[in-house]
């Protein structure tokens, strides 16, 4: 009896060893590993170069404005018009954040349909025109575009290796883009689960995880281990929880209104004036440029670009944001988003949230200002994307604010719930469905 049991155990052991050997020696398995790992490394390099180019573009814009104060009234309308024209004629589907395109591409089964949303030509246009938009002072960010470019790189690598239909390619690429753009690996994983894929494929888990980690490590190796917004060291106690509620309510209302404005505008603007607006997108972009220049002048130049510097200085206590910064930055981001140019809303949203938090801190002098600003960022960002877990993880990793975890969770969940009452469908999902419907109708 004991001999029989020992033989069975030996058979099972040898069977496991054979399966392990097949996995380790399988050419297809190694090809898949190399695709994900190599693609992840390229994403890390791309994200660092993209970030550097974006910073230099913003510096060039501020240098030009320093030479001649009215410069934005020339640069912005002409620059946005040129960007919209190039997008329409050469880089279709490169407009906007890029995250809706990634979400839509995951639901398209035909390779030719996916290539209309994720291709190297679109990726190149996305990078170039996002950098160009920042050089023109538009209120946009590079993080959303990084997600689309990263998903494209991963999909192209898989296609070249014969894995083009593997379901985790786009998902892993998009998640790695978030990780490399913000230097926040955990946020990349949570973003993939909560935002890019509501029905997350279990068999893609390990590939997404390894891709995110490698992309984050490559970016870290190139620029060092840093916190995107520095480290505040601020913590808020139970006796300041009125600030938590206030940040959640304000973030939910403002974020919901922003999402509603963008979703409604993207649906109704093409039909205005008998459709003439849709036939002249370049002129509309030029008009948006003039509005952005006027908003920038009203804010003293604070609403130009991503708003990253303003938010970081406020978090570090080195700059006091005026009360009007948040509303004006929100308006500038709406105008930049509907102008039809490439550019994301991640960084501008965090800046708007910082402005809201600074306002709350000014009317709540007993609360730690840095902590309230962090709450304002979480509340508004969660209100915009309606993804509270992503908002919490990304802000905790960006600010090294682990001590703020519970207040951030409460603020983000409250903000997301209030925003859903105002804009019933999350902004990325609404825009992705519009893209899917357009491609489905064109295919039929």
Q: Uncertain segments of ≥5 residues (pLDDT<50)?
A: 199-206
Distance between the termini: 67 Å
Total helices: the number is 20
CATH topology of the largest domain: Clc chloride channel
Radius of gyration: 23 Å
Q: Give average pLDDT, whole number.
A: 84
Write structural notes for this entry.
- This protein has 444 residues and is mainly α.
- The chain folds into two domains: 194 residues, Clc chloride channel (Orthogonal Bundle); 202 residues, Clc chloride channel (Orthogonal Bundle).
- Helix content is 74%, strand content 0%.
- Helix 4 packs across helix 20 and helix 13 runs antiparallel to helix 15.
- It is globular.
Secondary structure layout plus pairing:
Elements: H1 2-25, H2 27-67, H3 72-89, H4 99-106, H5 111-115, H6 120-135, H7 143-160, H8 168-182, H9 185-196, H10 205-223, H11 241-268, H12 276-279, H13 281-298, H14 308-315, H15 325-338, H16 346-363, H17 369-385, H18 388-399, H19 405-422, H20 427-443
Defining traits:
444 residues; Clc chloride channel; 2 domains; mainly alpha; globular
In a nutshell, what does this entry contain?
Helix content is 74%, strand content 0%. With 444 residues, it is mainly α.
């Amino acid at each position: 009896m004991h001999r029989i049991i020992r033989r069975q155990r030996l058979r099972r052991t040898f069977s496991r060893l054979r399966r392990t050997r097949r996995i380790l020696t399988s050419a297809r398995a190694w090809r898949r590993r190399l695709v994900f790992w190599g693609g992840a490394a390229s994403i890390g390099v791309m994200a660092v170069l993209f970030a550097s180019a974006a910073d230099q573009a913003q510096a060039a814009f501020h240098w030009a404005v320093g030479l001649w104060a009215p410069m934005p009234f020339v640069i912005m309308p002409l620059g946005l018009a040129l960007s919209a024209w190039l997008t329409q004629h050469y880089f279709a589907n490169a407009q906007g954040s890029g995250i809706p395109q990634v979400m839509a591409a995951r639901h398209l089964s035909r390779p030719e349909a996916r290539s209309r949303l994720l291709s190297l030509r679109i990726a190149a246009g996305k990078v170039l025109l996002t950098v160009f938009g920042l050089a023109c002072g538009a209120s946009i960010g590079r993080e959303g575009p990084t997600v689309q470019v990263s998903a494209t790189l991963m999909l192209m690598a898989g296609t070249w290796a014969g894995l083009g239909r593997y379901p985790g390619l786009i998902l892993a690429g998009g998640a790695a883009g978030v990780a490399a753009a913000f230097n926040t690996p955990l946020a990349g994983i949570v973003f993939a689960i909560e935002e890019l894929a509501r029905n997350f494929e279990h068999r893609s888990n390990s590939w997404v995880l390894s891709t995110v980690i490698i992309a984050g490590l490559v970016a870290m190796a190139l620029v060092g281990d840093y916190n995107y917004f520095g480290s505040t060291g601020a913590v808020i106690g139970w006796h300041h929880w009125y600030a938590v509620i206030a940040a959640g309510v304000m973030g939910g209302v403002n974020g919901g209104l922003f999402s509603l404005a963008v979703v409604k505008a993207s649906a109704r603007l093409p039909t205005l004036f008998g459709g003439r607006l849709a036939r002249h997108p370049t002129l509309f972009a030029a008009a948006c440029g003039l509005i952005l220049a006027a908003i920038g002048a009203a804010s003293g130049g604070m609403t130009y670009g991503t708003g990253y510097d303003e938010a970081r200085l406020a978090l570090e206590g080195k700059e006091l944001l005026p009360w009007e910064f948040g509303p004006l930055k929100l308006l500038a981001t709406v105008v930049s988003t509907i102008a039809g140019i490439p550019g994301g809303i991640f960084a501008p949203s965090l800046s708007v949230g910082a402005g809201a938090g600074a306002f709350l801190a000014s009317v709540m002098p007993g609360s730690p200002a840095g902590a309230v600003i962090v709450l304002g960022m979480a509340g508004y960002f969660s209100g915009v994307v309606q993804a509270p877990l992503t908002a919490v993880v990304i802000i905790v990793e960006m600010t090294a604010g682990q001590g703020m975890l519970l207040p951030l969770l409460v603020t983000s969940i409250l903000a997301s719930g209030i925003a859903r009452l105002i804009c019933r469908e999350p902004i990325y999902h609404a825009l992705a469905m519009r893209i899917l419907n357009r491609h489905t109708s064109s295919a039929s």
